[in-house]
Design a protein that fits this description.
Distance between the termini: 31 Å
Strand content: 15-25%
Number of strands: 4
Length: 157
């Protein structure tokens, strides 16, 4: 049997409305979601299940005020790596403290890492001791984040 997540799923207007509401409030009740999207609760359950089965909705999350949670220093750190070291580096990044996200890139740098640490001292240790110490990392470049905001989201939503 074929894996449904490998096929392209075509979103219709109802799917987009559901996604838009869930992105705005992942804790919205099915009743409220159905009312806002003008569908029945049963239809809302069915649509969410279908979007999850298709791999479009991967999960539900909480947005954190990082500074209030004790993570006052944030930075993007670009890594230049040896060509054959991505898998090993990705495996190691999963286990490092304060690493929130990382991506393999095409361009001037190979990997972009988003880190959130309690302070600049912890950030310095992470960059100079841990990231630069990873096997396969050739160099790093760090950009401190002074302020953040979310954009409007994907156009299709």
């Amino acid at each position: 049997m074929a894996d449904d997540t490998s096929r392209t799923y075509v979103l219709d207007a109802t799917d987009r409305r559901i996604i838009r509401e869930l992105v705005a409030d992942g804790r919205i009740s099915i009743r409220a979601l159905a009312e806002k999207t003008h569908i029945s609760r049963a239809h809302a359950y069915m649509r969410i299940g279908r979007l999850q089965d298709a791999g479009i909705i991967e999960g539900f999350t909480t947005h954190i005020a990082h500074d209030k949670a004790g993570l006052g220093s944030s930075a993007f750190i670009a890594l230049s790596i040896k060509q054959d070291s991505w898998r090993g580096i990705a495996s190691q990044l999963r286990n490092l403290p304060f690493v929130e996200h990382y991506s393999l890139l095409g361009g001037d740098f190979d990997v972009l890492v988003l880190v959130r640490s309690p302070d600049n001292r912890a950030l310095r240790h992470l960059v100079l001791e841990q990231l630069q110490g990873l096997e396969g990392v050739l160099s790093t470049k760090t950009w401190l984040i002074f302020e953040e905001a979310n954009g409007p989201g994907a156009e299709w939503v």
